[in-house]
Here is the input.
Amino acid sequence: MSSTIVSLPDQSTARIPKTNFITKENGLLSWLLTGDHKRIAILYLISITFFFFIGGALAGLIRLELLTPQSDLMATDTYNKVFTMHGVVMIFLFLVPSVPATLGNFLIPIMLGAKDLALPKINLLSWYLYVVGGILVLYTMISGGVDTGWTFTTPLSTHYVNTNVMSTGLAVFIAGFSSIFTGLNFIVTIHKMRCPGMTWFRMPLFVWSHYAASILMVLGTPVLAIAIVLVALERTVGIGVFDPTKGGDPLLFQHLFWFYSHPAVYIMILPGMGVISEVISTFSRKRVFGYTAVAFSSVAIAVFGFFVWAHHMFIMGISNYAMLVFSLLTMLVAVPSAIKIFNWTFTLYKGSITFETPMLYAFGFMGLFTIGGLTGVFLGTSGTDIHLTETYFIVAHFHFVMVGGMLMAFLSGIHFWWPKITGRMYPEKISQLAAVVTFIGFNFTFFPQFILGTLGMPRRYAAYPPEFQVLNVFSTAGASILGVGYLLPILYLTWSLKYGEIAGNNPWQATGLEWQIQSPPLTENFTVTPIMDHEAYDYEWLENEKAKEVASVG
Amino acid sequence: MSDSTAIANGAPEAHGITHGHGEHPSYQRHHFESVAQQADATNFAMWLFLLTEIMFFGGLFTAYLIYRNWYYPAFVAASHQLNVWWGTANTGVLISSSFTMAMGVWCAETRRKSGLVLCLVLTFLLGLVFLGIKTIEYSEKIEKHHVPGFHYSVQAFTNPASDPDTYKEYKDQPMPLDMARHTEIYFFLYFAMTGMHALHMIIGIAILGFMILKARTGAYTGGHVTFVENFGLYWHFVDIIWIFLFPLLYLISRHQ
Here is the structure.
């Protein structure tokens, strides 16, 4: 019995193709002025990794401070700045662009059989906007930080704090436009650039989930932009829109902010779900069970996602009726999410499952996302929410979804498509180890926080009562394991750039169009425009193709 | 795609699927299969961009909706401070500029170079007229201390007789200070919404200037009209925003 599906070419004769998108042109300018979606994806990958490590270092500082009950490592206001910057960096500079701007950028045109995204210049512009936003965040950090929390809560952000709200706000505003342009580009590409035969229901689910996420980016982000403009005007000019003394309403800010920021969590998670669909199908050698249901569940999440924002405001004095309605709508989102989880599980059923690294991460995703999602139902129930909100329970909940879910999916996708992007394999054994270490470290870090939250430990404080220390020590210990889990991939993936085995076109024997071309791909992706003549995830078609190839070579 | 675009594209490659590189017109980007696909995609992208703009303005319209419901009397009295005639004139100016813009798109599609330049120049000028009138209106607000945040004064609302011009016309009753203070919210919305609109106008006028220079060299009358078309969409969009702003800000009490 074979425990692997990996089919690498004969390593003694295999070569990376001489002409590919990496070698086509040389020099820094050929990268900085490129219109090639694959190169822009790599620019994004480098920059988001940079910010991930900054955000990760800040997380490390938070956990170190919380090792002891007293606030002793840093002053309390420094702690406020550290967790704020952790949130801003991780959300706006890592999670939102993570999968879409890297893997999505790289793969969507190829999966659709197109030569590039519809608007290459806009794509490059979006990266530059991201970089400007990133530099502004770095400037904020160097010049003293900001301590409003990533939510810019009014009137704290407009009237009370004297930190760099303006530069952070501007950074988020600009990074927001980068995400709008990415989403816009994806929607146009998916509508207008599909190759002949690529009908909507032949698209890989990765594309469907990006389509749903793009709708959220395009419709949600402008609302965040205007909310931030208003905060800036309120802070500088005192226009009174969020100022109760002038008749304004701080709650209006919450509505505008969460109208984006709740859909934003779906912007973050949906592309990850797309990765999981691809990986689960490939490593169980089966078409995704209930393809249409999974495709539409992405769209359903996007649509429902717009009508649940007020569940962030249950303790802020919205009416009981609003609470009732938003509570119900929040639980409705659980339905399409569960459809996905169940369909992935059914895909596994009677599949020929192998346990390569992307699959291990995908399993991690399924377990952790389920826990994160279910605890979300507790929080969507207004009664329990009033007890649990603003405690570590909510911290654990969104880290299960965002880190346990999205980051696992991101790493899964990076490993899965690494051979396609670089032409070389990552080392399998150590990466499997890294996946397991990440999973263990993650649970150690965040599971105790659920207990801390139900015991009543509030979030956003540098000090806590001594009886919470044991669980906090667990959490900090787990964070250091998690840190190792994230450092490992950086090391061995960099190593594999030079020393990894040559991957060949299709090391996973996957069915997507991206696996039928050379790795790394040509700048124009395809030598001739492909014609899609089969359904997505059609492994029989792949077998036939291989048989034909052997016959013709023979 | 409209018929006139089809005429403009004229050449058979607009309908083909696959071609060698040699046959492409120079304005076709390498990653599109055909000019038709390129025009289609950029057009669609423009519509999506306008959708994001609607959401952007949507935040302000939401704020308007809420505060107008809460502070209706203050909104009515404050709107009396706006000059309906200037507002109407500006509406006329903008609608005319939309007409000249639409004519410009038509000229580009039917390859009338001098017509296109004329239409763009007219649009450009009308845009400037709009901004000029807006400046007159803004300076009046500054003189009366009606700019929120900068020494805002409620005198005209607590004691309407102190502002004889407006009083003569509307005979507003004095408002208690509590409600009069909320006129500041109205003026914030007035400046935020018309200011954001004016910002879009300024961007539009700058692009128009650039287009006039290019149009004179014949850049848009050679069959490649996407840019003019998409700019037209943008200009009409900015126009439509004003069509909503005008009644919401100027005509609040007109139906009474």
